[in-house]
């Protein structure tokens, strides 16, 4: 057993890593699809709640959040090929801040990747129940069914998983493009997109102020603008399954971000401006894209249009299950979680144990809330509190990843960097500032958010207690751990 800075490393033989092997397959376009697919459901719904503060408020908030994500993406484009490990955020923070920093960052991402698929499958179940007219009490069967199908697709093999990711991502983008084209003949921007007045009231004739709630409305819209890009950061989790991560990872994540920027501002411009829809109505809609389609094509094909919305949800559900498995796998392989969770399938070389356990945990949380609070209130808690918990975990991890970028530039300047961020340290600082401001307004702007933060704190407390008492004494020299130790020794040689 090896001692190092308050932690201990357990010696393992080669069979340990043979049981935890991954298979390389992904190229640039597979990585692009993984990043875009994870985010795309946020273009179908979620972003629109910011319209309650006025279209102009959400536009400015979206520009600010775009700047934050550009800073984050360029940080990741530099760090992921320099540290091409499945651990992604955890491995970046581990190399920059040591085992505790890596573990806390990993915990925050774990909240995001376990709970986000649960929220998405809840919305999928709601759509499917409406389409096929199944009773509300049957909702859990839709959740279980979709988890079973998409875990199976992810377990069968990385080749199939990435092919499915590419197909569903292209289908989701195609749905959005069809909407953009269909919307143009039906636009009346000043009448409908600008129909929110001071205090958030509806203006029947439109032509309202650009910022009906002033700059406070812009700040309040920041958390909703996050939905336009949330989860693009998962792409580096595929580093050990990329054929050439040093070449392909920067290209994949930057191309993905550019695609999402175009899609985000197209939907923000067109959806509220469709005649008969409007920013005021969309500000409380759970199905903004579907509302736009109904106005364009009529109610008669509502069920077909609902299937269109499901495509976007399925794209994100599938890709975030992929990310969840890799995130749990990486922390487990290094001993931060129980090492049994990192065993991969003997033939398929996919982290099936991590995906199954993570999904069972999410389903257990959903079922508990559903049966404790009842169908109506339980759905509100799943769609609200769990979602808030996932966003909190994501924003905290953004702050930590940007901080890791700065510390790696400062403390490990000589590691090989196949790609260097054009925004450098200033870009990372801006990302940290915007992430911190957004977190603040999530905490102060949504009373339901307090409950979510409480449960995140409980999860952090359990995780930190486990790591302090057990985990830190049983770490394993996985690739990211070995890299961190070696590079720190090079940068700070013993006298």
UniProtKB/TrEMBL annotation:
Bilayer-crossing regions: 28-49, 55-77, 111-128, 140-157, 164-184, 214-232, 253-281, 301-323, 353-373, 379-400, 421-443, 449-469
Cellular compartments per GO CC: plasma membrane
Subcellular location: Cell membrane
GO MF annotation list: transmembrane transporter activity
Statement: the UniProt record of this protein carries the keyword Oxidoreductase: no
Tree of life domain: Bacteria
Protein name, per record: Amino acid permease
Organism listed in the record: Pseudomonas cavernae
